[in-house]
C-alpha cells in the first residue's frame, strides 16, 4: 500500500519549465524590465560616486599608523598600490543593488571609462557625507527592490487573492535584507577564521574544508534565495517566510538547489556576453537590454517555481497523510 501511494504522487515542477514560463511571462509583459533597465542606464551614463578624495585624505595617517605598528615598507607599498588601482574604479552607486531583494544591475567593468555621451561626471564623497550616502543608497535599493519584486511576483504568480501592498513590501524587504546580512556574517566570519587556521596547518585540509563547506552551503543559500518569495507570493511576514523557505528546502533540496544553481549559472554566465561591448559604444544598449530581460525572466521563473513547488509539496503531504491512506485502503 505504501508503494502504491508513492507511485501515485504527482511529479514535481520541472526546472526548465519554470524558467521557460518566466521568460514567457516577461516577454508578454515587457514593462516588467523597466526598473532594471533604468538602473542599468543610470549606472552606465550617469555620474560616478567615488571616494578617491576621501581615501587620499586619510592615506598619510593610515600609513603612519602602519609604520608605527612595525608593518614592513614593502607590504605597505603593495597595499597602497592595490588601493590606487581599485579605489578609482569603485562606484558607490553600486550599493543600490541590494541583496537578496534588489533591482538587478549589470556591473560594467570600468566605472570611470568614457561613455557615448562623453566622460561621466565624477562625484566625490567627503568624510562628512560618506556616512550619509551609504544608508541613503541602501534605502533607495531596498525601496526599489521591494517594488521590483512586487511587480514581477504579481505578473508571475497571480493566483493569490491580492498582491502585497507597497508599504508592506518595502518594510519586509528592509527586514529581510538586514536579517540575511546578519545571518551571512554570523556564518561567514567564523568559517573564514577557521579556514585561515586550517591553511596554516595543511593546504590539503583547507581544500577539503572548502569542498565540504561548499556542499553544506546549499542549506543556507537555498533558504535565503527563496526567503523573499513567501513575502511576495503568499503575503507572509519575513519570519513566516523564512520558515516556509526552510520547509521547502528540507523536502526539495536536490531539485531546489539545482534550480538555484541553474539560475546563477545563466545569470553569471550571460554577464560575460553583456559586457563584451565597450562602455563607449552604443552597442552596450543591447547588453543592458539583454541583462534586464534575462534577469527579470529568471526572477519570474523563480516565483513560478516557488508557487508550483509549494502546491506540489502540499499535494504530497496530503497524499501521504495516514487518514488518506486509510480511506484509499
What does this structure look like?
By secondary structure, the protein is mainly α. The protein has one domain. The chain has helices spanning 2-7, 15-28, 34-45, 52-68, 73-86, 130-156, 166-201, 203-216, 218-234, 238-274, 284-320, 322-328, and strands at 48-50, 122-124. Strands 1-2 form a two-stranded parallel ribbon. Helix 2 crosses helix 11 and helix 9 packs across helix 10 (238-274). It starts with a helix and ends with a helix.
**Shape assignment:** globular
Number of helices: 12
The parts where pLDDT drops under 50 for at least 5 residues are none
Average of the residue pLDDT scores? 87
Strand order of the largest sheet: 1-2
**Radius of gyration over all CA atoms, rounded:** 24 Å
Question: What percent of residues are in strands?
Answer: under 5%
The structure class reads: mainly alpha
Give the helices and strands as they follow along the chain. Answer: HHHEHHEHHHHHHH
> Could you describe the largest sheet, including whether it forms a barrel?
2 strands, parallel
Count every beta strand, where a strand is a DSSP E run of 2 or more residues: 2
For the record, give the distance between the C-alpha atoms at the N and C termini, rounded to a whole number. 8 Å
How many distinct domains?
1
Q: How much helicity do the residues have?
A: over 70%
Amino acid at each position: 500500500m505504501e508503494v502504491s501511494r508513492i507511485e501515485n504522487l504527482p511529479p514535481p515542477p520541472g526546472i526548465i519549465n519554470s524558467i521557460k514560463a518566466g521568460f514567457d511571462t516577461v516577454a508578454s509583459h515587457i514593462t516588467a524590465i523597466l526598473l532594471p533597465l533604468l538602473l542599468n542606464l543610470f549606472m552606465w551614463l550617469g555620474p560616478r560616486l567615488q571616494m578617491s578624495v576621501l581615501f587620499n585624505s586619510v592615506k598619510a595617517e593610515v600609513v603612519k599608523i602602519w609604520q608605527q605598528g612595525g608593518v614592513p615598507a614593502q607590504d605597505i607599498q603593495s597595499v597602497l598600490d592595490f588601493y590606487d588601482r581599485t579605489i578609482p574604479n569603485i562606484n558607490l552607486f553600486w550599493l543600490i543593488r541590494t541583496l537578496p531583494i534588489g533591482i538587478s544591475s549589470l556591473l560594467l567593468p570600468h566605472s570611470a571609462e568614457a561613455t557615448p555621451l562623453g566622460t561621466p561626471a565624477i562625484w566625490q564623497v567627503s568624510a562628512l557625507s560618506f556616512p550619509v550616502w551609504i544608508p541613503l543608497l541602501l534605502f533607495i535599493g531596498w525601496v526599489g527592490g521591494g517594488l521590483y519584486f512586487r511587480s514581477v511576483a504579481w505578473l508571475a504568480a497571480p493566483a493569490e487573492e491580492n498582491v502585497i501592498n507597497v508599504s508592506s513590501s518595502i518594510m519586509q524587504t528592509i527586514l529581510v535584507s538586514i536579517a540575511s546580512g546578519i545571518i551571512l556574517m554570523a556564518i561567514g566570519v567564523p568559517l573564514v577564521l577557521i579556514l585561515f587556521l586550517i591553511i596554516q596547518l595543511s593546504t590539503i585540509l583547507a581544500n577539503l574544508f572548502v569542498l565540504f563547506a561548499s556542499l553544506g552551503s546549499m542549506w543556507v543559500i537555498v533558504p535565503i534565495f527563496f526567503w523573499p518569495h513567501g513575502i511576495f507570493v503568499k503575503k507572509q511576514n519575513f519570519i513566516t517566510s523564512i520558515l516556509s523557505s526552510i520547509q521547502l528546502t528540507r523536502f526539495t533540496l536536490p531539485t531546489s538547489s539545482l534550480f538555484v544553481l541553474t539560475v546563477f549559472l545563466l545569470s553569471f554566465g550571460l554577464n560575460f556576453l553583456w559586457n563584451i561591448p565597450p562602455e563607449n559604444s552604443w552597442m552596450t544598449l543591447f547588453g543592458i537590454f539583454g541583462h534586464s530581460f534575462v534577469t527579470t525572466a529568471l526572477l519570474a521563473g523563480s516565483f513560478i517555481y516557488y508557487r508550483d513547488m509549494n502546491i506540489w509539496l502540499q499535494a504530497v503531504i496530503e497524499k501521504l497523510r495516514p487518514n488518506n491512506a486509510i480511506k484509499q485502503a
